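Hi support team,

I'm opening this ticket because the web form for multi-chain structure prediction keeps timing out on my end. I have pasted the exact lines I submitted so you can reproduce it. The total is 1004 residues across two entries, so I didn't expect it to be a heavy job. Is there a limit I'm missing, or should I split the entries? Thanks in advance, R.K.
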Amino acid sequence: MADLHIVVDRAAGGVAAQIARELREAVRRGRLAAGARLPASRELARDLGLSRGVVVEAYEQLVAEGFLISRIGAGTTVAPAASRPAPFDGPSPTPPGRPRAKARTPRAQESVRGEESGRGPYRERRSTAPDLGAFPRQRWLASMRRTLATLPAEALNYGDLGGVPALREELAAYLGRVRAADVSPDNLVIVGGVAQGVSLTVQALAGRLPRAGSPHDLGWFVRRAANPVPPPGRIRLAVEDPAGARQLPLLHAAGADLVAVPVDGEGVDVGALAATGARAVLLTPAHQYPTGVVLSPRRRAELIEWAVATGAAILEDDYDAEFRFDRDPVGCLQGLAADRVILIGSVSKSLAPGLRLGWVAAPPEIAGSLRLARGELDLGSPVLEQYVLADFITTGDYDRHLRRMRREYRARRDAFTLALGEHLPEITVWGVSAGLHLLAELPRDWDEVAVAETAQEYGLAAEPVGPMRYAPGPPALVMGFARLPVHRADAMVGALADALRR
Amino acid sequence: MADLHIVVDRAAGGVAAQIARELREAVRRGRLAAGARLPASRELARDLGLSRGVVVEAYEQLVAEGFLISRIGAGTTVAPAASRPAPFDGPSPTPPGRPRAKARTPRAQESVRGEESGRGPYRERRSTAPDLGAFPRQRWLASMRRTLATLPAEALNYGDLGGVPALREELAAYLGRVRAADVSPDNLVIVGGVAQGVSLTVQALAGRLPRAGSPHDLGWFVRRAANPVPPPGRIRLAVEDPAGARQLPLLHAAGADLVAVPVDGEGVDVGALAATGARAVLLTPAHQYPTGVVLSPRRRAELIEWAVATGAAILEDDYDAEFRFDRDPVGCLQGLAADRVILIGSVSKSLAPGLRLGWVAAPPEIAGSLRLARGELDLGSPVLEQYVLADFITTGDYDRHLRRMRREYRARRDAFTLALGEHLPEITVWGVSAGLHLLAELPRDWDEVAVAETAQEYGLAAEPVGPMRYAPGPPALVMGFARLPVHRADAMVGALADALRR
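Hello R.K., no limit was hit. The queue was backed up. Here is the completed structure from your submission:
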């Protein structure tokens, strides 16, 4: 039985979260080894002088995140993959031929749908956009005023290529606190949104980014031009099936040759992933796009095992993580295995996409490559808005804004799903525990493109899932509710239902 | 003799500039053909009811920009290269074997200096940084306040990949007015500074950027992964010798194989450029870095001729263009041949590098590629500061700030050059007619690295020119004066002189 030293500050509130944090750290730092058995919740509660429910809540949180495993009759133990260090580059010593979670035939190479849809660029209104009318303009301006009043002049020069240190400090603390990430300011790189973060990370994994700086010397470069330059590398990258389709050209341009791995009700199928031979996988564990599935504890453990055994990298797009409605947010995968997972996030859903502010938390050698790459691409992100975001987090305005939006989005989700159930009972709704969209599965004989167009005509954000699939699936729509006023949800869905029945 | 219809508004002031603008448009639109002879300044002045000096000033401006040619005894004629349309891709019908401006032996491929200096990244304090203490914080904040008070919510979504239209409108007008550029909002692309603008343009010329969008469709990309991807192209790019060394890794990473072309007192040597077989050249015509030379009218004409004849592209880094001290700014090269020149500029010198705001004016197919590329890299630049800059230009705050800084920098230049002449007469000073730096040529037996270090110790911004050279040259320093207070210049340079003599 593990000997636990847990310090709880009752006055500070959030006692279950405090216990979870202490346990998580104990696992990470090796004080709780893989396989170690935890005290029964009743015992630990008695030792700490707390109610049992608080300890159960902490254990459940860590089971959901993949740190602990709970089996009926066997108690609660530390998950095997939760505290294993491994070198990032190249396969680890563990041979890859270990048993697979669930063997599956790889998907046929021919898609049933063959059409090539030439859809518009990113600026089209997406079904997953946040409510931009709620952007906290006054508080943002107040942060800008404070920033401009206090910033030293030199801070307006070319910035640190990895991002403004003040922002990295704030974000590292924030991601540790809210996302249970295992991040220090030094392995955070500020980027221009998730898109740039994903592009640069794939380029790093494909061997396209610098690992050391070149001399700044004209003679050196002129002489170098006489020698042939090796072509940039490519990497076999697995993506979820279905997956967001707009990012695909970006992945290809960054050097990724894509292979699709099916997503089921627990998230990505790790057995199928292992069978692809991919060296990296791009995932949306917090709220899969487009299915809305939250990655299960079992799959989390399997994924980390796969990555450790094969030396592969997991790119965690922390999509929609801020908006978990029915329980505490599940910690990110990166917190389980900081040496194998690259966490990529942004303020595009929490504040506004137009800010183009995001971050990458990566192992040191990848973070270093990203910083060097910014020096050969764009000399880093604009600095003023980085200082403003740091101030916005420090003052607590960011937390307050997120709490307000979480309440608001939950109310909109409730109104929307209620109206769908009322007016369109033929539709099966998936993925509503988090995020700003849901998956609406249509009856087999409905045409998803036609239904999406009708929904758009009636003011509802909807996109057909077809182009997001590799393997065929039932007709379905991604539907966003972030901009749907609660008091209009019933009327709008009712009008759509009437139109569809005509 | 050309028949000129020139309309002048005496009440508006700046009559010489008005005449220059009318003549420039006449040449561009073909109303004044290549070789056409202009009326003598005395005649035109009489026709317009103006003093002759005003017409002479307008003619001189256009000669400096390369639109007109003036020969003693032969009057003033329209330059042969000034109004010739040509397709951008591939060589034009003109055979490349025409006479060259000045034949020269290409430089030997071995540099005398062989050392590889591993200097720090961009964030080091550069000798050419502007005075960041003069950043107009209050007015910038006022523009931000107006922007946040009036912006529609949807404007906070993913922006136009080419940049906020309001900013492109303002900038196109500004660049036409101040830089005599031939730009419309549609062929302007907002980028994160000159570095990103240069990187993307080189990638476009090397054939690395998309020319058409890919379908957003998972099946399409998975099937595509089965086919080999051709390696990205490279391009032979000429750079000036000497040239700014910090940008060299960026150029190489973008696909450029570099060749160096000497710069003399008139700017880049076009004969030597032609001999390299380069398909593109990167230039700083307004104030060459590091020599400070302003490209001569003759060289401008030769450059355009070379580009038209060979189908090559000219990348014009509009470096330091805002700060011309002793006369009106010379219009940009791009205004002479908008189909062959790509103009790249930013607010890094005029406001602050930390804003990371710049632009590229390019022919439509290149501008289109840049927009598509942003969709596959970072989804465009942050939008808020784009709106702020648009407001800043609209209100006239940008012009006012530039006028104030031009006066201030001229005073600092005067104080600095006076002090150098007084205390260090051994040093020959070059390139002081514009910009924020000068070139200080040292006596042959001085060690530029040691002198630069001493100058830095005494608070003067100085960098050795060695790493910026391919062909050997005399020891020299780039010295910046933008941050040098007028009242301290004499004491600081005096202290440096004392230290050097010890």
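A quick check on our side: Residues 206 and 310 of chain B are 16 Å apart (CA to CA). Let us know if the file doesn't open in your viewer.
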